[in-house]
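Q: Hi! First time asking for a complex rather than a single chain. Here are the components, and I think there are two in total. Is that enough to go on?
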Amino acid sequence: MSKIQAPKGVSEYFPPRSDNFEFVRNTLISAAKVSGYSMMELPVFEDTELFIRGVGESTDVVSKEMYTFEDRGGRSITLRPEGTAGVMRSVIEHNLDKGQLPVKVWYSGAFFRAERPQAGRYRQFYQVGVEAIGANDPELDVEVIAIAHRAFMALGLKNYRLDITSLGDAESRARHRVDLVKYIDGLNLDEATQARAAINPLRLFDDKRDEVREAMAAAPLLLDYLNAEAARHFVQVQELLGEMNIPFVINPKMVRGLDYYTGTTFEFVHQDLGAQSGIGGGGRYDGLMSDLGGANLSGIGFGIGVDRVLLAAEAEGILTDAGPSELDLFLIAMNEPTKRFVARALNELRNLGVRADMAYGDRALKGAMKAADKSGARFSMVIGDDEISAGSANLKDMKTGATESITLSPLTVLADQLKRR
RNA sequence: GUGGGCGUAGCUCAGCUGGUAGAGCACUCGGUUGUGGUCCGAGAUGUCGCGGGUUCGAGCCCCGUCGCUCACCCCA
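A: Yes, that's all I need. Here is the structure of the assembled complex.
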């Protein structure tokens, strides 16, 4: 029989690393929760049309990276490549935008993009994201950025930076685009690069080749085209970030791949990650809701890549410590008959809220003690015929090695004892 | 999608110019009656990613394929 492998390019998390993955994800989620965001659990597949209209047909994500298929009813379905469009769809569909604004939600889950896999770039990857819809305050922009910043701080991440810029409003961007295209037309570029520029001229700012960088050095910057209102908004964001001690750099050449971004846009870049260095990014989107058939509300949000944050944390060596054990007690039965007694006691202790486990399988005492040690439980207890007839057993502190005799009936005595420590 | 590197025990890897595989860690057991972490000893484990080919003979050479990885590209 041939072995079945996981599909190409997916990331899987299993013990012991899954503990770190869970820790990273929970830290990101906690940061959203303390800012008053509520959870949203959405489908991983949506009507293909949602992403075409929401993310933009000309984007790489939509034009060549989506997992799209026909379901049994002949509908075109797509595995979600990002989170914002689905959130908007759901908010509109359930009239959340008709209530108190802003609507503030977070989500966490798997996303799918059919790209060539690489370290930090997977075909199924995990994101934690937030969206705040229905208010265009610069304070809200900063709140969203601060959530990500707070999460990274809580993890102890250091070697990253926050890039921000403003993409202005549609009118500013149109004016800038005219001049930028004019500038690019005067450049001597190869065919592939011209094709990229035709789809999105801003892309050329992102090119890594030196000759293109030099050629683009004098290109007109979108930041210089902002109208008064957009410029004022962006200044306020900068001031507030400064007041909150959130370091940032203005990167007028930042490029985002999703069409819906407007105004404040940002990206967290980690220094130890190689090519896939963006650990999170997001921005404001003014037209998205109305494009999807909802009210004309502005929103702002981000997506953080859990896989990449985990990679970054590992690269910085801040997750090397094994997490604290979840177990209070590890039980060991001396022989077959006492095993049943131990299993019942274990069950009762768990009912009483004690986090406990026991040695399974036919292991010698030495091996069972080793298992107790590996489990990380704070206490262990060996139970044999003697203990059962005496009605008490020695509770051993695995750190100090000290033991103490404790009654086995009722088990509440043991449970209370363990909870007090 | 394009180009480069790699794929040997659970993990990290060694294996010279082709002669049918090793180390460390981890794991299991033991060091005289029922207590782990250190130490000592013993043991198990691989269709050498998969499929073809060249050869008397391939982990080592060739082709294909799958996967990983790095860069481009893209973005989380």
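A: The radius of gyration of chain A is 28 Å. Let me know if you'd like any chain examined more closely.
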